[in-house]
Specification:
Two copies of one chain form a homodimer.
Chain A: H1 5-8, H2 19-27, E1 31-34, H3 47-53, H4 69-82, E2 91-94, H5 96-108, E3 114-118, H6 124-130, E4 135-139, H7 152-155, E5 163-169, H8 181-193, E6 197-201, E7 227-232, E8 245-248, H9 252-264, H10 270-282, H11 285-307, E9 313-314, E10 322-326, H12 332-341, E11 348-351, E12 353-354, E13 368-372, H13 377-399
Parallel strand pairs in A: 1-11, 3-4, 3-5, 5-6, 6-7
Antiparallel strand pairs in A: 2-8, 7-8, 9-10, 10-13, 12-13
């Protein structure tokens, strides 16, 4: 049978591809610290499940294609509290940030198109872009300069006739980079001058640790046609299984096209949207402060633990809940196989997301890994300690 | 800003495009009988919400990308009870049948490819296929011959070098056609001989009114590489807002490619899958019998009511819960505007899905409509009566 050449160019997720080996290790009784997936252990605010438990109708019927009104209104109020004026028509409810990206790319990309993305980047962008026939054109960054990318010098040389959009994650996954107001303006100017969509994935908006105010590219009223914000309740409310996100854009033509796909797939899940509405309605600034403080403690703990491993290099993450780390090994994929199949320390081993999947160029990032700090401090400290011991054992074996 | 030429070729859903006019009519106090959308009024079995209410974890976390184990196992048992052996690895949990189609088409289609689909067909197929750059190649059918399509004579002349798949809906939406065992074998033979995917959308499997046994294209073990079944809990369990479906295929390469996209979008919604597992686990043959009997009463009532309208033509639907009807009017779209904006009888008016969206060729089906019989018998009778009065008034106005 013949398959699409596009899907043949896609890969399994580097974040999830070791899932089968995880299961094997667990079957052998190993305790595996999972630093690979951004699955927070923080409680989903109980209002989410409470709202779903109170669902009153006897029929779990379709939601409207644009979204459940209560969810759209609650999201609109959330942006208004942050200082951004959007109408409910500027918001399209989606199955998480993932479907928001899929719908958007179906509207703006086709064969031969390019999307500029600073690398390292969230690997699922690659899958979503490739299935349209387009490709990522990476903007290289320097780990030694903290992976920063938002300058004309770094971006403009990569713009060509095929460029359709500039896609950024702010705060950054996997780098933790948080854009300054000046950097955001530079990106806005570039998008406007070159007539590009500026796609801003802001699902980690509140998770910033340097005293910055949560920000959004919605701040530029002159960029109404260019800016598309991708959002989700997953990380903000520790509700990754809820699958409620949104495309937010003031570009009417784009939202009209997006509605074709939204109507085609009928609706996003009714109950999750009802729960998400309750989250946006009831969460206070203190809630966000508490979550932020907890992740900041974790970030600090991971940083301190990493510094104890000889030979690791990393940039201090300012936001989100990941850190990209260069390990003193030849190949992080091979180390991961070793950690899951051969290594253990008092029954413990560890998983991360190997770094090469975060780069466009084959071979790049082979000695890097992404670590998600989504567990309690003591667990993270132990996990990083186990990683250090695993590296020692792996390198000792290599030398034999 | 530049958009994809593919999305520009897509349309809004003919089933949902009158949504704004519905809202206007309702704001004027009209009671609108909605025969356009397949949104059943039958109660979602309470085990669905009960299972979700009992969700024990404090964190609504990601599900595994292939699906929640309990859901996959319950679905596997459901197919086994029907007589079809599939492994859990042959099932991929999706956001309803819609995402199952989207993922599948991303795996097998690209620019220039064609999918054979008997027309009239479910219009959202067109959107999902067009965004890949492929197109529907329609297999014409004859309303006077009950829209039947499963013969070599009707299908084989349309196969060419671009044909990748044959897509059928069985029982049929919008036609109500239910394939005979002999017809299913003909389709299987054609797919095998011409090396095509045979995509069988079976979301209405149990809704058959001629004493047939619920069937599936999974019945052909020799078609393991070709057959892909699309399924969903939406219609079977009256849970359209639950958004839980599946791709079922024994083609390992296909399922491997599908997993790339499944991992990319992380997972289908966790809570809905837990509810869906409870549905498949606890629903008895008596449940399906009861639902089938209720829809059969409704079909019979709609048929009797339609026969009272002078000039309508339709084929007796054997399955699903739709009937395709040719109306004695020039343009069903114009009639729909009239019904929502100008007409009322004792405050009542009616909506349907205009027929042209169910055909590939522009202009075809312009005097046809799809009626969904998903309401109580008395409501359906009144709705069809109102439709008849509306047609009279519309035609009288046209003649002025």
């Amino acid at each position: 049978m013949k398959f699409s050449s596009r899907i043949e160019a896609c890969s399994l997720s580097p974040i999830r591809k070791f899932g089968p080996y995880l299961a094997e290790a667990q079957a052998k009784g190993r305790n595996v610290y999972q630093l690979n997936i951004g699955q927070p252990d923080i409680e989903t605010p109980p209002v989410f499940l409470a709202a779903i438990r109170n669902y009153g109708s006897k029929v779990v019927g379709y939601a409207p294609s644009p979204g459940v009104n209560a969810y759209l209104e609650a999201a609109q109020e959330y942006y208004a509290r942050l200082g951004y004026e959007v109408s409910c028509d500027d918001i399209l409810a989606t199955y998480g940030g993932s479907e928001a990206l899929q719908i958007l790319f179906s509207c703006i990309l086709e064969d031969g198109d390019e999307v500029l993305v600073p690398e390292p980047y969230y690997p699922n962008y690659d899958t979503f872009i490739r299935v349209t026939g387009a490709t990522i054109h990476p903007i290289p960054t320097d780990p030694a300069k903290g992976y920063r990318f938002a300058t004309r010098e770094q971006i403009e040389p990569h713009i060509n006739a095929h460029t359709r959009a500039l896609l950024i994650t702010n705060p950054g996954n996997p780098t933790g980079v948080v854009l300054t107001p000046e950097e955001r303006r530079v990106l806005a100017d570039i998008a406007k001058e070159h007539n590009l969509f500026l796609i801003s994935d802001e699902v980690y908006r509140e998770l910033v640790y340097g005293g910055q105010k949560p920000s959004s590219m919605l701040e530029f009223p002159d960029l109404a046609e260019n800016v598309v914000v991708i959002d989700s309740v997953s990380k903000r409310f520790s509700a990754t299984g809820a699958r409620v996100g949104a495309i937010i854009s003031r570009n009417r033509e784009l939202m009209g096209h997006a509605m074709k796909i939204a109507q085609g797939r009928l609706c996003a899940t009714t109950l999750d949207q009802i729960g998400a509405a309750a989250l946006y309605r009831t969460m206070t600034p203190e809630y966000y402060d508490g979550v932020r403080a907890e992740y900041q403690r974790r970030r600090d703990a991971v940083e301190a633990a990493l510094r104890k491993i000889p030979g690791v290099q990393f940039a201090y993450p300012e936001g989100a809940f990941y850190v990209m780390v260069k390990l003193p090994v030849d190949d992080a994929d091979q180390l991961q196989y070793f950690l899951l199949q051969e290594f253990e320390d008092h029954g413990d081993t560890v998983m991360y997301a190997p770094g090469d999947g975060f780069y466009a160029e084959p071979g790049k990032g082979r000695d890097e890994v992404r670590i998600a700090y989504v567990n309690q401090v003591e667990k993270l400290q132990r996990a990083i300690e186990v990683l250090g011991l695993g590296i020692q054992a792996y390198n000792a074996r290599q030398k034999q």
